[in-house]
């Protein structure tokens, strides 16, 4: 078993150190598709801290997204059962103490359709004011629309999340912006909205995951990287703002010696806020520090850090705190950012092996052609951002539930 553990540790280091290789390359297909192996049993061994057996939850990169979703659901159900049991115990205790305080076993949110946002915020704030509010959010969610009868069998929750997120993510509300180039939703720099609304968005996203409801959001992978305490990079900026990101990449790839004369840059950038142009120093006294060929990596890193971290720090911290209020815990940290993205918004994590299997070839090419074999080898090793770019240029028909029914490469 020591040999097996050492092998897995080596893989874990490799997976964490190299984002150019897709996280899917580390999945153990035999494990994920096994009819005898139980993810639930592995989870129980992990929670109980078993050290005398090999526990794969300690090496989460071997699990695919479906297995991790099962782990998250197991953990959520366990926490829900614990929260409900504690609520029942406190109700019984209060009865014998003479206070007769009845604690509901569900997280009940009652809202009106005409005042959905304010009612939801009031409900969340009310629960946050409770002494053990983190436990309250672990209860099963039940949503009721005022004046409407019927049980919430899942459809009411889905409608609630859909309507609420539509309002919160609307650029007109002043919290988020949608980039025209990519249709990606991102935090609005220098937003004037109260931080409690960003906290609310985080709680809503957490509740959606916790209660197995997909949110139709278009958040980039960078948000999920930040939630998992990973640092966004240039590739993440390229996903959000391709033109700007590719321009920054061109700085890094420029080979001529006339770098300063060609680009004429300093460590100061300009940003448009509310119709006015503002200048920001990326480093102290940035306006007087030219970007040279030797310092261009520092410039690009500082630019990316400002856009994806510093400029939205207050908003994201509030969002993250809300999200972690519901979904905080070790199970969340088992996820790769792209897998967590799929849990929140249902963004497909495409199985490129399936795509390879059903691809048709023309002009003399075939499955065993050396060029085709080399092509697929490169594709499988692409990072997540480059995979998406590849898929956006591919003629794919009939994509559903991670299966490709027809694909042509000419």
State the share of residues found in helices, binned by percent.
40-55%
Overall mean pLDDT = 82
Global structural class: mainly alpha
Largest sheet: 3 strands, mixed
- Strand fraction equals 5-15%
Given as residue ranges, the uncertain stretches (5+ residues, pLDDT < 50) are 1-9, 395-406
* Computed CA radius of gyration, to the nearest angstrom: 24 Å
- Envelope shape: globular
Oligomeric form: single chain
In DSSP terms (H or I, runs of 4 or more residues), the helix count works out at 18
Distance between the termini: 48 Å
Walk me through what this model shows.
The protein has helices spanning 2-17, 29-32, 39-47, 65-97, 116-128, 133-136, 155-168, 195-210, 221-227, 234-240, 242-253, 259-263, 296-308, 313-327, 337-345, 352-358, 370-380, 384-392; strands spanning 107-111, 141-145, 176-178, 185-187, 268-273, 276-281, 359-361, 395-400, 403-409. With 410 residues, the chain is mainly α. The strands form four sheets. It has a three-stranded mixed beta sheet. The protein has a two-stranded parallel sheet with strand order 1-2. Strands 3-4 form a two-stranded antiparallel sheet. Helix 8 packs parallel to helix 14 (313-327) and helix 9 crosses helix 15. It starts with a helix and ends with a strand. Residues 1-9 and 395-406 have low confidence and may be disordered.
Please describe the topology of this protein:
Blueprint: H1 2-17, H2 29-32, H3 39-47, H4 65-97, E1 107-111, H5 116-128, H6 133-136, E2 141-145, H7 155-168, E3 176-178, E4 185-187, H8 195-210, H9 221-227, H10 234-240, H11 242-253, H12 259-263, E5 268-273, E6 276-281, H13 296-308, H14 313-327, H15 337-345, H16 352-358, E7 359-361, H17 370-380, H18 384-392, E8 395-400, E9 403-409
Parallel strand pairs: 1-2, 7-9
Antiparallel strand pairs: 3-4, 5-6, 8-9
Helix pairs in contact: 8-14, 9-15, 10-11
